[in-house]
Amino acid sequence: MADQWTRFQESLYRSEELGLELDVSRMGFPEGYLDAMRQPMAAAFQAMKVLEKGSLANPDEEWQVGHYWLRAPELAPTPEQRQAIESALAAVKEFAGAVHRGEVSPPGGGRYRNLLLIGIGGSALGPQFLTDALGGAGMRMRPFFLDNTDPDGFARVFEEIGEGLRETLAVVTSKSGGTKETRNGMLAARAAYERAGLEFAPHAVAITKEGSQLHGASAEWLRQFPMWDWVGGRTSVFSPVGLLPAALLGFPVDELLRGAREMDQATRQADTRANPAALLALAWHHAGNGRGDRDMVVLPYRDRLQLFSRYLQQLVMESLGKRLDLRGQEVHQGVAVYGNKGSTDQHAYIQQLRDGPDNFFAVFIEVLDDGAGEPLEVDPGVTCGDYLHGFLMGTRQALAEAGRASLTISLDRLDAAAVGQLIALFDRAVGLYAGLIGINAYHQPGVEAGKKAAERVIALQGKVMEALRSAGRPLTALEAAEAAGEPGEAETVYHLLRHLAANPGRGVTRDAGGAPAEDRFRAA
Amino acid sequence: MADQWTRFQESLYRSEELGLELDVSRMGFPEGYLDAMRQPMAAAFQAMKVLEKGSLANPDEEWQVGHYWLRAPELAPTPEQRQAIESALAAVKEFAGAVHRGEVSPPGGGRYRNLLLIGIGGSALGPQFLTDALGGAGMRMRPFFLDNTDPDGFARVFEEIGEGLRETLAVVTSKSGGTKETRNGMLAARAAYERAGLEFAPHAVAITKEGSQLHGASAEWLRQFPMWDWVGGRTSVFSPVGLLPAALLGFPVDELLRGAREMDQATRQADTRANPAALLALAWHHAGNGRGDRDMVVLPYRDRLQLFSRYLQQLVMESLGKRLDLRGQEVHQGVAVYGNKGSTDQHAYIQQLRDGPDNFFAVFIEVLDDGAGEPLEVDPGVTCGDYLHGFLMGTRQALAEAGRASLTISLDRLDAAAVGQLIALFDRAVGLYAGLIGINAYHQPGVEAGKKAAERVIALQGKVMEALRSAGRPLTALEAAEAAGEPGEAETVYHLLRHLAANPGRGVTRDAGGAPAEDRFRAA
Asked: What is the band of A56 on the pLDDT scale with cuts at 50, 70, 90?
């Protein structure tokens, strides 16, 4: 165990300035591993440098990758980009201040007390994570989210807002403006305002890129904030996408940005031992044999970080989950991410982590400052926070005894700057890991397939309904598929017709048979 | 594609009575797979039968496994057990009714409007899932949870409750009564009530087993409800652990129980094709080669089912994540579970599911009834719910095209009975899968290791503090470890001392050095 004290110190990254340590001593790096990886890491550092300078790292989409500039506008490659970032930040702060001071207020008077955020994916996960990590009863507004196209989910949110809708500011976020879930959420919100006798436009704000469908549709709204092609959805949290909600809720956006900026500086170091993101990327690489053979289990011991695993699920899996490498070879790369929070998960799935398959590595996040005023002694000399900390140490120990790998990120405290650091740390680790395995971390070609398949299903529904109406008799799913000119789609047609028949007023009734092929559907 | 229509129907489980279909046609079962698995399945059915009759399926802990009796008390092996279940249910309903009618009310008058649930693991995940799945603005009380030992998390909940604490009913749930997180949550709650000038006991209810520490401590509280050795934490949702919160929030507990009971009946069928849980267990077995080689990704297309993956994470991973099989061989079994909700996750990690490693299978959950009153048309003839449904179909199709396995559970509607069904379906699938791979699904030996390690850390903290105080000079972590008689624990001592030093008033200050070995800590 004296060995562990030595091993711990040998590979430890520690920065008093950042208030952060990263400990990879339990990852089981073989002797000389960091040296052996010096060459590939040097290439990854170089690629990152080129990327930050504004190269088209996203060649198939011809976009730059600019999220690092958001927290250091002086690094943007053109004065126009720098100015766009700076003036967007100023506009965000100015608008939030005006809302807080009541200068921007609901038609008919009063104050905006609620914030309804409409967006999905990169337009939702960042704001949701920030809200949970920094929020509480003291927020300047009460946040609500529409992040899907589930009408039941929509209805539940509007019921919760209730009479408060009049004092609710809606923020619709979609870079392209073409995301159907967000478009539907916006339409559902508009309908809800109208049912309450309110106009939507004077309650609504858009965050979108110039020229998008949403940009046009929101011309008469309260305000428009920009998005840019050179910021990807999953790294957009320090653009208006994340900063506007943060500022409206009353979080210190300058501190968020400062934390991220300082971490960016620390992770530009082209020396692995002095670069926490490089150590993190190497830990992933070693654990998964450079092929994602092990899942990453994220275990922050702090309730406020519960959504971090969900944020990372998108950041890591959408960035690294790729079929082709940069040379066009089929590689099927990726790293699966899941997690929740400690010590809670000790009572859920940590049984499997200790005793089950060796198919993961754990990322422990320790926060030293318990952060909650006067501590409560629950045993003599022992506080609730001591227990939380003790459970982290104990669980980590129990995993190590079972030969399971883990790394530990220690934060001095959890404030806005630390949250900014955490996000920037993983941003950079994702970029460096992508460099190590030679993939493009900044596109998402596989997402299109699902969207297009869904569009075909929506189109198929129209054809099937038409076929059913003109048939004038009950049809089986196969008959309806044939009548719609899609005989190969009988199974999808079956699901479509069952869905329509399950919802009154949609024009379809079902006569159940003994099996799917025997169900008959009629135009009602 | 006509093939898919045939394949779909061949292996489909469909029950009009349950309003449920289970489709494993995209799991890639080889020809004759179900027949080939007939023998092992027969053994699993037999083991389940013996278990339900009350055998000691938990031989190392000498407990029966009785969660099936909770929803069909007439099946309990003894009249005492039957009576215990029935009278607990009656007491739950009686108490909830009395609270709703105001017959049980806060000291000083008024009504109980808030419900503070204090528990962790099996005592939290069930109530949390039920609350999200069935709750909304119409709940009879407003729920809050303490499910950790994070003082900052505790403080946040009490801030949110605010002045409402006087009208808050606290329910403390711990079967053994010895769970530290729950004990700490209870102490934090008591302190919060006392700070507000309120007595805790007349606001508090306990759910625990007779003779436990909590049972003794709660003797003077408002009410006590039973837990029993023969119900495990992760299957306790249909005991008072889940039913009391459900009843207090106003959910129809009889419907929940009915759904589970009917699913139990359907899954007692010793014929795989006619048993959805058997098909589910075989799907897991095939996908993971009987060794958990693939993760289970749970994708319900309904906001209300977002926490189901978290519920299943515990149920599946704590049950199946085992080092030894029943013959004592090292097997390191398990199935990793993660997920969130569709179509939201299409914009997060589905990029990786489609293009990344083939290391998972997806469980789609389709709900046919959109469940939200008057539908909103977002395109001509197309509703928000059509899009949700279309995205499910499209994503499933996109995964299938990439050769990724999935299965689909279709529910006619999502109500309390359906939620009961879903839970019971997975309860049984876990039991049958455990039978197939020959492990005990009803203990959790690995959890103890983490708890014991944590206890040692807490004890170490006391020794270190004593050593530091008597040293009379600043000590390094290694010196403090040596002085505490634990020279091998320098790294843990370093973390302990940093944690104490980060929190004012804990009696430790730190003089930072250039490295952990050079930091010096003093008793303040």
From this structure: confident
Domain boundary (A203, A227, A251) is at: A251
Number of domains in chain B: 3
Residues of A with active-site annotation: 318, 347, 451
Query: Any CB–CB contact under 8 A between B55 and chain A?
Result: no
Alpha carbon of A26: minimum distance to chain B alpha carbons (Å): 12
- Shared-domain flag, residues A435 and A460: no
pLDDT over 90 (residue B164):
yes
How far is Cα A393 from Cα B121, in angstroms, rounded to an integer?
A: 19
Instruction: Identify which of A137, A313, A492 has the shortest CB distance to residue B349.
Output: A313
Kindly state whether residues B81 and B230 are assigned to the same domain. Answer: yes
Query: Quick check: A338 and A297 in contact, CB under 8 A?
Result: yes
Residue B366 forms beta bridges with which residues? B410
pLDDT of residue A59: 60
> Is residue B60, in this structure, part of any structural domain at all?
no
pLDDT band at B2 (very low <50, low <70, confident <90, very high): very low
Residue A448: is its pLDDT beyond 90?
A: no
**Residue A132 near residue A307, CB atoms below 8 Å:** yes
Q: Is the pLDDT of residue A100 over 70?
A: yes
Instruction: State how far the Cα of A352 lies from the Cα of B291, in Å rounded to an integer.
Output: 13
In-domain check, residue A188: yes
For A507, the closest chain B residue by CA position comes to B381
Contact B148 A181 (CB under 8 A): no
Q: 0.90 exceeded by the pTM?
A: yes
Residue B12 domain-assigned (yes or no): no
User: Average pLDDT over chain A, rounded to whole?
Assistant: 96
Q: What is the CATH number of the domain that holds B482?
A: 1.10.10
Chain A residues in contact with B371 (beta carbon < 8 A): 151-152
CATH number, domain of A344, equals 3.40.50.10490
| Partners of residue A303 in chain B, C-beta under 8 Å | 148, 150, 152-153, 156
The residue among A392, A381, A367, A394 whose CA lies nearest residue B464 is: A381
Residue B428's domain spans which residues? 18-53+256-443
State which residue of chain A sits closest to B400, comparing Cα positions.
Answer: A450
Q: What is the mean pLDDT of residues B387-391?
A: 97
Both tokens of A126, joined, read: 């960042």
Domain boundary among A418, A443, A468: A443
Residue A368 with chain B: CB contacts under 8 Å: 498-499, 501-503
Answer whether residue B199 shows pLDDT above 50: yes
Q: pLDDT digit string (tens) for A125-183?
A: 999 999 999 999 999 999 999 999 999 999 999 999 999 999 999 999 999 888 999 99
Question: Does residue A10 sit within a domain?
Answer: no
Spatial neighbors of B149 by CB under 8 A, at least 6 apart, are: A343, A384, A385, A387, A388, A391, B180, B181, B184, B185
